[in-house]
Design goal:
With 418 residues, the protein is α+β, with helices and mostly antiparallel strands. The protein folds into 2 domains: 243 residues, Bira Bifunctional Protein, Domain 2 (BirA Bifunctional Protein, domain 2); 89 residues, Anticodon-binding domain (Rossmann fold, 3-Layer(aba) Sandwich), CATH 3.40.50.800. It is 39% helix and 22% strand. The chain contains 15 helices and 16 strands. α1 packs antiparallel against α5, α2 packs across α4 and α5 packs parallel to α9. Bound molecules: adenosine monophosphate (AMP). The site of adenosine monophosphate has 17 residues, from β6, β10, β11 and α11.
């Protein structure tokens, strides 16, 4: 028979048992800290309608034009979600979440899918946590969003980060700015990279994002958005900066930080880590005051961010930050003989009911092999059980770390593990 080698798809990783501990620790930290910020979790399906993602993320983005995993079944077109802002905006609209009253302060954790060329820190299935604050155009919402993002990295211990912020204005300011960019770039069109020439026609703001060398001298001299912000947008941006200053959150204003879509508005931000190499963006976000309307919902100013979990974990590795506890079990029952095994099977639920984690050998191994296994499992205590112990209701309770033993009844053991 031909040998079959099944593997994961390119850029899609298994998260193995030795790694899930840190994932769980991070997820628990996010849930716990989100509560402090009065954020509520939202979970949306992994698949969405293609049309939602095309509209909500934008036809002209790399994500939609090149990186979407899509398929159809009958008349329905599905995509694996490449991000979660459009899905959350869809859920908000579909379920009329505005009717709950007030501002909806939402967060999510989950897998996203983009058919990118995989490399370190760039996967095809990756995970994000993120926040969407919907129904407020107050700069407080922008700053709370940024503060939560910073707070998570700080709690994890990643403090060597750089926050970049910018304002891309409202559509009115941006239209004027776009005109200025077009007038500026048009005379040098032929000297720009091919990609930038395309963007000049479709989405001139994105030229500022260009990494192509030939574009750089032109970008450096390009008009700046700040000179085109109307009073309201400039005022909003100033407030955001003022609150960040008051909170002692360091930032750098980066006039080239843009989000190239029309429904992104005003605040844009990105968090960079020098510990990440070429894929150095930990998280990014901004305001999207027009997105909900764009996908058919009510007028809903909103702001959010998305953060890459794999990149956060890479930064932890670089910084020797250990998330989660090493694997261990409180009690390992070592059994000798059939009656002891029968007793062990019944003792496990009692130990667990008392609050301990508990396990025993499933392989009928020798006492020596079971003790070895208890060590491998990093058991804190072992209970050694044979016919003699059962008769006397007196068991050897061994503290594995101290290598100390005492003889205890099962009731005394239950008291101890409580
Ligand atoms: P974006 O949704 O593109 O603004 O990305 C937000 C964050 O998600 C980035 O800063 C990265 O940390 C992470 N991210 C985006 N794309 C990928 C990917 N393909 N693989 C791993 N992480 C990613």
């Amino acid at each position: 028979m031909a040998q079959i080698n099944y593997r994961t798809h390119l850029g899609m990783n298994d998260i193995l048992p030795d790694e899930t501990g840190k994932w769980q620790a991070l997820e628990q930290l996010i849930h716990r800290e989100a509560k402090k910020f009065n954020l509520e979790e939202i979970r949306t399906p992994i698949m969405e309608q293609t049309e939602l993602i095309v509209r909500g993320v934008g036809q002209l983005t790399d994500i939609v034009s090149k990186e979407i995993f899509s398929f159809s079944r009958g008349d329905d077109n599905y995509v694996l979600r490449p991000e979660c802002t459009a899905p959350v905006a869809r859920a908000f609209t579909e379920h009329h979440l505005e009717q709950r009253g007030g501002t909806q302060k939402l967060y999510y954790i989950g897998p996203m899918f983009r058919a990118e060329r995989p490399q370190k820190g760039r996967l095809r299935q990756f995970h994000q946590f993120g926040v969407e604050i919907m129904g407020s155009d107050d700069p407080v919402a922008d700053v709370e969003c940024i503060a939560f993002m910073m707070h998570i990295y700080e709690k994890v211990g990643i403090t060597n980060t750089k926050l970049k912020i910018n304002s891309i204005g409202d559509p009115e300011s941006r239209d004027k700015y776009k005109e200025a960019l077009v007038s500026y770039f048009e005379p040098v069109r032929n000297e720009l990279s091919e990609l930038s020439q395309k963007r000049l026609d479709k989405n001139p703001l994105r030229i500022l994002d260009s990494k192509e060398e030939e574009d750089q001298p032109f970008i450096e001299q390009a008009p700046l958005i700040h000179d085109y912000l109307n009073e309201e947008s400039a005022g909003h941006f100033n407030k955001v900066k003022e609150y960040l200053n008051q909170l002692g959150i360091d930032y750098e204003t980066d006039p080239y930080l843009v989000r190239g879509l029309d429904y992104y508005t005003r605040t844009a931000f990105e968090l960079i880590s020098p510990d990440l190499g070429s894929q150095d963006a930990l998280a990014g976000g901004g305001r999207y005051d027009l997105l909900v309307e764009e996908i058919g919902g009510p007028e809903t100013p909103a702001v959010g961010f998305a953060a890459g979990i794999e990149r956060l974990l890479i930064a932890c590795d670089e910084l020797d930050i250990e998330l989660g506890e090493p694997k261990s079990v409180d009690v390992y029952i070592v059994t000798l003989g059939d009656s002891a095994r029968t007793w062990g099977v019944q003792a496990l639920p009692k130990l667990r009911a008392a609050g301990a984690s508990a396990t025993m050998d499933y392989m009928g191994r020798s006492m020596k092999a079971q003790m070895k296994d208890a060590n491998r499992e990093n058991a804190l205590y072992t209970i050694i059980v044979g016919d003699h112990e059962l008769e006397a209701n007196s068991f050897t309770f061994r503290d594995m770390r101290k290598s100390e033993e005492e003889a205890l009844s099962f009731e005394e053991i239950l008291q101890k593990v409580k």
